[in-house]
Structure to design on (143 residues):
């Protein structure tokens, strides 16, 4: 197993229940606003986050951002787990988003990083919610 991210930040040491996860999604709207203003992403990502905030998934998943990419993970026993992550990245040249699920527990070295990518899809921003649901149907233990 390859450790993709070492958990050193204060927020990474906390235990997350449903209410704390929901609060994290609410707070992520501010980050999304800044990313839209800085042209790192489109308003569709913010709309997707609003959609998550309005349904039960906000109490299941944890949102994070890295270089304008939304990273969605599912905590394990209340602790953040970046080993399995759905990333949603915007390409302003094509005006498309790439959704990519990776599972770093499946590989033994960083040299095998391409093998960690289990699911990928490109779509316009308006389809993020629909394709997220397709992902949840594919990765049933996430839903």
């Amino acid at each position: 197993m390859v450790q993709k991210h070492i958990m050193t930040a204060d927020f990474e040491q906390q235990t997350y229940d449903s209410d704390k996860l929901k609060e994290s999604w609410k707070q992520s709207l501010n980050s999304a606003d800044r990313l839209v203003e800085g042209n790192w992403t489109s308003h569709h990502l913010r709309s997707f986050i609003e959609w998550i905030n309005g349904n039960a998934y906000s109490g299941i998943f944890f949102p994070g951002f890295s270089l304008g990419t939304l990273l969605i993970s599912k905590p394990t026993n209340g602790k953040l787990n970046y080993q399995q992550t759905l990333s949603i990245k915007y390409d302003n040249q094509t005006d498309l988003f790439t959704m990519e699920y990776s599972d770093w527990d499946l590989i033994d070295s960083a040299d095998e990083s391409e093998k960690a990518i289990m699911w990928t899809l490109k779509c316009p921003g308006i389809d993020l919610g629909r394709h997220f649901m397709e992902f949840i149907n594919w990765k049933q233990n996430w839903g």
